[in-house]
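Sequence, structure tokens passed on for absentees:
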Amino acid sequence: MAIKKGDKIKVEYTGTLEDGKVFDSSKGKPPLEFEVGARKIIKGFDEAVTGMEKGQEKEVKLEPKNAYGDVNPELIKKVPRTQIPKEPDPKPGMVLVLKSPDGQQIPARIVEVTDADVTIDLNHPLAGKTLTFKIKIIDVS
């Protein structure tokens, strides 16, 4: 039976970037479980499993709009260096964890450091990237 919205499924997957680098995989972990169409995972992955059947494998390439979206320039901010913890010394590529007023943790990647400011990027690390997933349907209920 073909998978449809509302089905609960288990999948094994490997996600790679355009250069072939693996950014995520279920290998060595329990399969990913989710309800199809419940919007709990990225749009393109959710849509890719629709119509598949138990045991079927598929490779799908997702453009940014169907994955983590395009990079939003408004989410790249300069903050005074005095607002950044002194230890460890901030460097490009480091990730800070900020807290929103409601207590939610938000990762912020440091893009640039000057004597006066630190530029942080609040976009998802995979925003703007084309992703490829190898998907195998393990179970459908």
